[in-house]
Amino acid sequence: MSERDPRGSFRDYGRRRPVVGGVEARSRRGAFARNWWGRAFVDAVEAVGDAGRLSRGRTYARSGQVVALDITPGLIRAEVQGSQIQPFTASVSVRPLTTDEIEELSATVRRQPGALATLAGGTVPENLAPLLLPDGAAAFDFDCTCPDDGWPCKHAAAIVYLAAERIDIDPLLVLTLRGVRLDALMDAVGGGGPGSDEDWYGESTRLPRLPGVEFSAAIEDLDPLLLRGALRTVDPDGREVERTIAELADLYRRLR
């Protein structure tokens, strides 16, 4: 993050600008994640981050200041509206698993293939949690284009909480963050070969109930940064970008 401006405090920058069509937090108060794996993700960041900035990050998340959020291997990236005209670009890096760690994970699912079915069904098996969920300061890094050099700043903190909500709904995103391909784990399950007394194919495994599917507008599945970039090619000043995104989101909700 860039250095703090020595000429004044952050109060000099003014209040945050309101956002139309920002990412909506599921949580209005209390914990941001409902399931234990989502809470574990939040707890890991709160154990190493600045408490004051994390608190302001929760406020930013709930007030819709995050206008775009994208989760890719090893990285959570977002645009977050602060007090300036243009949003800040904030990111949370999550350390990918090493080759040895991926091999250990593959060996675990070979021994217990039902764990992979449970994960695909929308629940993180507890025996996979120590291998998948990031923990400790070394697992995270934070960056932002704002002037605050905090670790994390409130903008990066805001996207942590919203990302935790997405992981809470779709735990397969943990695989994405840790740089693990689901098909590679599936190949590991099928690699036991005949003659083994293990249930490699999970034929005797009792699958969990299918999770309830919450509505998500199609616009939320797009790469938000690419969408905003495309809109800015026809609206360089960015004056109509937020209104256009809000209108698109409303149209998708009507198609529900």
TrEMBL record:
GO terms for molecular function: zinc ion binding. InterPro entries: Znf_SWIM. It comes from the Bacteria. Pfam families: SWIM (PF04434). PANTHER family: SLR1429 PROTEIN. This is Uncharacterized conserved protein, contains Zn finger domain.
